Amino acid sequence: MRKTILFLLLLLPARLAVAGEFKTLLGIHSNKYLFSSEFTSLNRQQKSGLAFGLGYAMEIAPKMKLEAQALYSEKGARASLAYMPGKTVTGTYSNTAITVPLFFSYRFREGDSPYVALGPEFNFILSHELAIPEYSEILDIADNTNKLIFALNAALGYELPLGRWGLFAELRYNRWLSDLLKSPDAAVKSESVSFLIGGIYFP
């Protein structure tokens, strides 16, 4: 009996590898910072950015999958900063991060199919800057930035298998739940809408 259990435990990783699928992802997103009411001098605006990376998905039940991804992501926001009454200057916040989203997804049918997905995300912030073009100045604000941000993703996509290969397109909403800046007096979060495309390999 023990030998049988040991054999099954050794066999499980191989079974998972065969059952899984590998993904490459490339996308663009529109992003903005969500400043709390304490930041009255900031008028936030949208900023676009890129994301790319790899993913691995595993079927856990018919039409249901668990998926983990690792992406390099560029986000930020444009803002008008008031420095005296009636006068503002435009600044651009930019941050880069390694993001690790985890998804539970449901496909509506076998073969080519639309799908929905939901899950948490962990953002490991690599850099954070504020550029003020009018004064040709770039301020490094990484020291005032939290390095780990927890977020939530919701996605709607379409998957098209083509033999051992496949394609997909996805629209994703992302909302940071943790504060970006180390400020005890005000909160700064982020939200974005992304469009991603990519390829799938079915081993």
Could you explain the architecture of this structure?
- By secondary structure, the protein is mainly β.
- It is 9% helix and 70% strand.
- The chain has one helix and ten strands; from the N terminus they run H-E-E-E-E-E-E-E-E-E-E.
- It has one helix spanning 2-19, and strands at 20-35, 42-45, 47-61, 64-84, 87-107, 113-132, 137-140, 148-162, 165-176, 188-201.
- It has an eight-stranded antiparallel β-barrel.
- Strand 5 and strand 6 form a beta hairpin.
- The longest helix is centred in the first third of the chain and has 18 residues, at 2-19.
- The radius of gyration is 21 Å and the shape is elongated.
- Residues 1-18 have low confidence and may be disordered.
- The whole-number mean of residue pLDDT values reads 86
Which sequence of strands runs across the widest sheet? 1-3-4-5-6-8-9-10
Percentage of helical residues?
under 10%
How many helix segments?
Answer: 1
Task: Supply Rg.
Answer: 21 Å
